[in-house]
Amino acid sequence: MNLRSGQRAGSSAPPRSSGGADRISALADELLLLVLARLRCVRTAARASVLSSRWRGLWTRLPSFVFRDVALPALAAVLHRVASDNVVSLSLLDIDVPQRDRSPSWAAPHGRVSSLLCAAARLSPERLVLALPWDAAAPHEKVELPRFQRATSITLSTPSLVILRARAVGQLSALTTLVLSGCTADALDDLVPRCPRLRVLRFSGTVACYTGITVDTIMVCSRSLQELVLNVEGHTRVRGIVVATPMLEQLTVASRVGDNLCVSVLAPMAGNVSWHCRYGSESPGLGSWTLERVSLVMSPPATRLAPVLQIQLLKHRDRFSDWLSMQDTFAGEVEKHLQMQVAADLSVFDLELHLAPLGHVYGALASFFLGIHRIRDAIHRLKVVLPEPKLHTDKVKCEEEYCGCEPDDDWTCQTITVPELEEVEIDGFQGDDHEFEFLEHLLRCAPMLTRVILRVSGENTGTNDAKVHDFSMEHPYVECHYVGHS
């Protein structure tokens, strides 16, 4: 057969040698385990067994296990297999159970989550991370947390609002970090006393409200705790927050609360505090103003920033309460949030009032807050925040008939003394006559007031220049700033 120059016959390539050495499988077990650990997934590491009998079962000796996309029924068997083969100390057990069914179904065997936790405890990991789908357990199912002897960190996410309880015997003596999400708050009463070395506690869930039982007081008592985060939501509102933590340095609370709230915070070393309580439709009110939210933010003493008390109020057309009879109740509800014992100095703070909707008279309301005992002698700076109207129709003026914005009597005749108030800012200033009346009243009550900031919205810039100019000329000792909204 004649071939052109450079052409070869159509024959197959020479066969590769099948007798080459498996250099990877010849490595020591320690090196093979490093290879498997790089896969960062137990399922993938287990599949490496098909490469060679040398790899078979080696994955069970990994120092950490990360399970992804493994169904809940199969996990217990897998963990049992690992517990029987594993001879090393497990540093991490990370399990994220996937959601299999979109429809609610509580036909899953009762106690499945407790069994899974028991299987995990037999591995005795140093760190446990367990994220469960919402259908892993029935709502308010009781789940037992076994004793993890070596665990220094436990993160448990249970969206089913389970009732988490510790085993009756033993402590979590090594635990320093506990993160709970989804369980009921009464778990803290049971778990925290069993953690003598706990440093960090983060909780996100709801109060306990199930058949015949309602536990609406959140209680955390610990001698070792240094960081506490409480995020409590749900239809049942918290009636009490009790914190007794002498070593606590950082406190964060965000909760839906009811009226007649009981607050007791004993954390003398806590310099970093973020406190947010959101009230409901039955919250205390003055006239038609209702208390929506009370926040208190305190920075570490080294920052030299004054604490900020932020109060949000909402005007309701369909609600009314008498000003005179409700003043003590309203003031008492606000003062509860100022009675906590923390490292920050609450004898000096700034007050922010957030009021909505726009257009209502607010001078009497702001003056009332300045007259509250724990506020009057401590406030250095007052800021009134009004919503910026997006449309002209957003600004609702007070109706001619009494709408509950202010009391029947002339509140401007009731002179109070605010000895430390130095600065006032009105964010959303409209230039209405009642606003200038409020400023005049403040100047009579606050002998140290030397700075006024009037921040206006874009559409109102320039419309009240003459009024502001006259005001500043009448009070030359006051530094007056009239600026557009930033």
Automatic annotation (TrEMBL):
* Region ranges (Disordered): 1-21
* Gene3D superfamilies reported in the protein's UniProt record: Ribonuclease Inhibitor
Species name for this entry? Hordeum vulgare subsp. vulgare (Domesticated barley)
- Name by which UniProt lists this protein: FBD domain-containing protein
In what ranges is there compositional bias, type Low complexity? 8-21
Extract the InterPro entries matched here. F-box-like_dom_sf, FBL15-like, LRR_dom_sf
On the tree of life, the source organism's domain of life is Eukaryota
